[in-house]
Structure formats: structure tokens, C-alpha cells
Design a protein that fits this description.
Helix 1 packs across helix 2, helix 9 (361-372) crosses helix 10 (378-386) and helix 9 (361-372) crosses helix 11 (389-409). The longest helix has 36 residues, at 257-292. The chain is of the alpha+beta class. It is built from twelve helices and eleven strands.
């Protein structure tokens, strides 16, 4: 057997494999003979079927197996002899008597460019008391209670109403409800509708007009004016909880009260700010590495990643309730994302190998501890990671990425940019 290698366009290569057909047929006969000792065919006892009938029934299947084994063995031998780093899987095609062409791609040779050309803006953030108070306000609003009041309804109140809407004195679909709950000012209904309810008291009935916007989602109502009759059933005013020990305990703070709660919030905000800063830095570093290190990407790997991304998207949509026949997605939609993911994977591996960057045990543990901090019992989370090699492998990959980013930042043009936590959260 012999093999020759041909360089095609880009990363594509082709190997012509010349197989020994006599040896293949001999192996086919050997396997069929062994199979005939146990095989059962209709009308014959196990192992008693004539060899010709066994060959007629199973010959093509066995020949395919033998040929596949021979091609794989010869292909592996050829790529090892020629020191080829194969990306993806080969495509085999007949090329004459006993000959086959194996077409495949190889991994690109990656040369990392000048890191000094990479420009990075690093956000600098300090968690302030105002940030903590803003978070407390959000937590309080999430636990708001509504108490019945006798006054007129105003913004922020929760009201219950009966209403019916008509267009040209004819009720329309979806224009009627009983005991409908609504918090004024949330924008769940049209502004004119909510505005008419403001100022109404319990038991009061009011008639008013509402014009539907021209781009209203219900096309049959778009641009039309409806007359509504609404009766106020009840008015409830919001009551926000005080930031005290009871409030802190409701959020899982067993000791320390409001002071401990604020300390926890500050710590959580600090960790979230750090995470978002790291995310921004990583995105900029990755973009920079790609810009200074152009290389060709194996098409087969991109296609495989496209299929993987599409499969994930389809499964996600199905989990959300969509029927498979209603999901209209094309792999081409995912191609830009797939190409970037494959490119970054190759580039990071090349950079890490060239600079001997790995995942140190202490940094892996620090990363796990960081993940565990937001849980009630961090020790259980740490144990969970260390009980499974796959989970720990994912963490190690993150640490390698972090180390690559750190190495690039040491040589890149980094500009610190002071910003607020609110701004950071809004952009990240």
C-alpha cells in the first residue's frame, strides 16, 4: 500500500490511498467464514447455512466493514508519515481500482501578531453607598404590599376595574374585562386608558375615549377610536417594607440586620462589577487578537459548530413551547458566530501553547470559590465542582482564558476609564 499527498486550495489536502484488493477480499472471506459458524438463516439451523448463501446475505455488509477498516488504517498511517494535523473528518471517494481519495482539511499554522497594536479600554468602578441604596430600593419594590385606601387612584396604585370598550357602539373582541388588576404607571395598557383611571374613586364609573396607535399590534384596532366605560372596583396603595432586621431576615440574613444586608449587597455588587469588567476586557482582547493574527479557518470545523449551535437553538425553542415544524432556522444564520468561536478556540490554544500558559491549581480553586460565594453554603458548591472532572475541566478552560487575557493586557495599549456602576451594568 502507498499514499501520495496533494495540496489543494487553502487548508484542503488530498491523499490517494491505494489498497491491496486481494488482501481485502481475503479478509472478507475470513470474516464470512467465521460468521457462518454462528449465523442463522431461515430454513437452516444456526451455523449450517451454505457459505454461498451467507456471502449473498452478508457479503456487502462485511465488505463495507473491511474496506472501512482498511481505509482508516491506511489514512492514519499516511497522515502520521506526512506529519499532517487533520481538522475534522476526511471524505473518501473511489478513484479507480483499489484506489480512494481522502479529502480533508488541516489545522492552520497560527502566528500571533504584535500585541502592542491591541487597544483596550478598562472600566474602573467603585461601589458606592448610592449603588447599595439603589439595589435596596429594587429589593423593596419586589416585596411591595398593597393596602386598600378610600382616596382617588394615583400613579403607583393597584386598581381593579370592570370595563367594556366599543367602536361605533359595537363591543370588540378583547375589549371587556371584569375585576381587571392594573398598577397605574407601569405601562401595561395605553397611556390614555391609564390616564382616564387616575383620579377615580372606588365605586365610580367613567366613560372616556381611547385612540389606538396606528402601529397597534391588533391590526383590526389600529388607528381607531374606542369608547370605554370603566367602573373602579377598588384602589390599593403600595407599601414598601422598611429596611430593618425583619427585611434582612426575609432576604436570608440571619444575623446582623440591615448593616449586614448592606454589606452583602456591596459585596455582591463588587463581584458583579468585577465579572462585567472581566467580560469587557476579554471581549476586547479577543477582538484584538483576531485583528492582529489573521489566519484561515477550517471550513469543516465551522460547519460542525454551526450544526451544534443550531441544534442548541432548536432545543431551546422547543423547551419554550414551540413545535419543531414551526421552527424555521438555517445553519447559515449561525455561521458568523460559529466562525468566531472556532477562530478563538484555535487562536487561544496556539497562544497558550506558545507561551506555556496553563491553569494553576490555586487559580482554579479561586475561580471555584468565586462561583460559590453567591450561594448559601459555598462549601457544597466547591465540593460539587471537585466531584466531577468535566465540571473542573470547564473551570480550568476559563482560567486559561483569564491567563491569556492577562498576558495580552501586559503588552496591549490599555486605557483606564472611570465609570459608574450603573453605567457599567447598563452596557454589559
Amino acid at each position: 500500500m502507498s499514499a501520495t499527498v496533494e495540496t489543494l486550495a487553502g487548508l484542503e489536502r488530498r491523499i490517494t490511498l491505494n489498497l491491496n484488493t486481494a488482501a481485502i477480499e481475503a479478509e472478507v472471506g475470513k470474516r464470512l467464514q467465521k460468521m457462518s459458524k454462528n449465523v442463522k438463516l431461515d430454513g437452516f439451523r444456526p451455523g449450517k447455512a451454505p457459505a454461498k448463501m451467507v456471502a449473498l446475505r452478508y457479503g456487502n455488509e462485511v465488505r463495507g466493514e473491511v474496506l472501512g477498516d482498511a481505509l482508516h488504517k491506511e489514512f492514519v498511517s499516511a497522515i502520521e508519515a506526512n506529519k499532517l494535523d487533520v481538522a475534522g473528518y476526511p471524505r473518501f471517494e473511489p478513484a479507480g481500482e483499489g484506489a480512494f481519495n481522502a479529502t480533508f482539511e488541516v489545522f492552520p499554522e497560527i502566528s500571533v501578531g504584535d500585541l502592542g497594536q491591541i487597544k483596550v479600554t478598562r472600566p474602573v468602578v467603585e461601589v458606592t453607598d448610592a449603588d447599595v441604596e439603589r439595589t435596596l430600593d429594587v429589593l423593596r419594590k419586589q416585596r411591595v404590599r398593597f393596602n386598600a385606601v378610600e382616596r382617588a387612584a394615583e400613579t403607583g396604585d393597584r386598581v381593579h376595574i370592570d370595563y367594556i370598550g366599543k367602536i361605533d357602539d359595537v363591543a370588540f373582541q378583547g375589549g371587556e374585562a371584569k375585576d381587571f388588576p392594573l398598577i397605574l404607571g407601569e405601562g401595561r395598557t395605553l397611556p390614555d386608558f391609564e390616564g382616564a383611571l387616575s383620579g377615580m374613586k372606588t365605586g365610580e364609573t367613567k366613560t372616556f375615549e381611547v385612540k389606538f396607535p396606528d402601529d397597534y399590534f391588533a391590526k383590526e384596532l389600529a388607528g381607531k377610536t374606542a369608547t370605554f366605560e370603566a367602573t373602579m372596583k377598588s384602589v390599593h396603595a403600595p407599601h414598601l417594607p422598611e429596611v430593618d432586621e425583619d427585611f434582612a431576615q426575609s432576604l436570608g440574613i440571619k444575623e446582623g440586620g440591615a448593616a449586614k444586608l448592606k454589606e452583602e449587597i456591596s459585596g455582591n455588587l463588587g463581584r458583579e462589577a468585577k465579572r462585567r469588567i472581566q467580560t469587557r476586557l476579554k471581549e476586547q482582547v479577543m477582538d484584538g487578537l483576531l485583528s492582529v493574527s489573521p489566519f484561515e479557518v477550517p471550513k469543516g470545523l465551522v460547519a460542525s459548530e454551526c450544526r451544534s449551535l443550531m441544534e442548541h437553538a432548536v432545543n431551546d425553542l422547543k423547551a419554550r413551547g414551540m413545535k419543531e415544524q414551526d421552527i424555521k432556522l438555517s445553519e447559515s444564520v449561525f455561521e458568523p458566530q460559529a466562525k468566531r468561536r472556532v477562530s478563538l478556540g484555535l487562536l487561544l490554544n496556539s497562544f497558550a501553547a506558545a507561551h506555556q500558559i496553563g491553569a494553576e491549581d490555586d487559580k482554579v480553586r479561586a475561580k471555584v470559590d468565586e462561583f460559590a460565594q453567591s450561594y448559601e453554603d459555598p462549601s457544597e458548591v466547591v465540593a460539587w465542582y471537585y466531584q466531577d472532572a468535566n465540571r473542573l475541566r470547564d473551570v480550568k478552560a476559563m482560567v486559561v482564558e483569564d491567563n491569556v487575557v492577562e498576558a495580552v493586557l501586559q503588552k496591549a495599549q490599555v486605557t483606564d476609564e472611570p465609570t459608574t456602576l450603573e453605567n457599567l451594568m447598563g452596557k454589559a
